[in-house]
Write a structure and sequence with these properties.
alpha/beta; eleven-stranded mixed beta sheet; 11 strands; about 25% helix
Length: about 290
């Protein structure tokens, strides 16, 4: 047993992993409201794990409705130091076929401000570095684990994060391809921003389910096609997670755990008491 705690955000079926022991369900209170659902905790191959269904059990929340702040805060509160995100994406590149895995390393923001994507505000201002928005070490481990699991996996690439819930227009899909982007989804950028502010390592296992609507030789994206690919890829995602967990060391070579070291610009003497209390878990060590 190690002291490392790994968080996983994705579909509700991911925590049903063979060999998981000491399984419990925990609802966490946060200053930002309720997370998407109960966290499922357990032990996998000697490593403590925390799972959370991003959209709630039964897929109840749209991408704009997900309480991302509460979800990431809850992971931090439960002791996670690394978060692995598993999500479905559309492919913007011919070589990324449905069923392939992508471990992206960049994001393009096409959300519209409907979702809360920062812990800062209410009397405290902070600006984290976000040039490299995912943890390079964790992403490298996910890529290696995907290769060893037998997946067809692509390393790197830009993820366009759109607001949703509607899929892209054909013009938008071609526009994103002109950006040089690789995949498109609706959730991961928001999580990545908050994970960086919470000083958590964050990496993505993106499951390609379709060619969005740009590809003339393939059907346009649809919910039934996405669900079919996701179901066929759940077992692969589990294998990748298990392989990655076995590789992750308690020793970190990244700077994710010090992301806020020089980020807070506010005079700490003027930060309101309530804001201090709400963000104690996030910024307390710097105050």
């Amino acid at each position: 047993m190690t002291n490392e705690i790994i968080g996983v955000i994705g579909g509700s079926g991911l925590y049903e992993m063979e060999g998981m022991t000491d399984v419990q369900q925990i609802m966490v209170d946060t200053p930002f409201g309720r997370p998407s659902d109960e966290y499922v905790t357990g032990t996998l191959d000697g490593v403590r794990m925390i799972f959370l269904p991003r959209h709630g059990k039964g897929h109840r929340f749209t991408p704009s409705e997900v309480n991302y702040r509460a979800n990431i805060y809850g992971m931090k509160k439960l002791g996670a130091s690394r978060v692995i995100s598993v999500s479905a994406v559309g492919s913007l590149r011919e070589e990324i076929a449905p069923g392939h895995i992508v471990v992206p390393d960049q994001f393009i923001d096409r959300t519209r401000g409907f979702r809360k994507d920062s812990f800062f505000g209410n009397g405290v201002v902070g600006h984290v570095q976000f040039a490299d928005p995912v943890c390079a070490d964790l992403s490298a481990t996910l890529f290696e684990a995907a290769q060893e699991a037998g997946a067809t996996v692509h390393r790197g690439g830009s993820y366009v994060c759109m607001e949703g819930p509607a899929f892209s227009t054909r013009a938008e899909s071609h526009l994103y391809r002109s950006f040089g982007a690789s995949i498109i989804g609706m959730t991961n950028l928001t999580e990545a921003k908050l994970a960086r502010e919470a000083e958590l390592c964050y990496g993505v296992i993106a499951l390609s389910t379709d060619y969005d609507c740009w590809h003339e030789s393939h059907d346009d994206v649809s919910v039934d096609a996405i669900i079919a690919i996701i179901k066929s890829n759940v077992a692969m995602a589990k294998k990748i997670i298990r392989g990655a967990v076995a590789k992750l060391s308690q020793e970190k070579g990244c700077a994710c755990s010090e992301a806020l070291k020089y980020a807070i610009i506010s005079d700490t003497s003027v930060i309101p008491v309530e804001t201090r209390e709400n963000l104690e878990l996030i910024i307390g060590k710097y105050l």
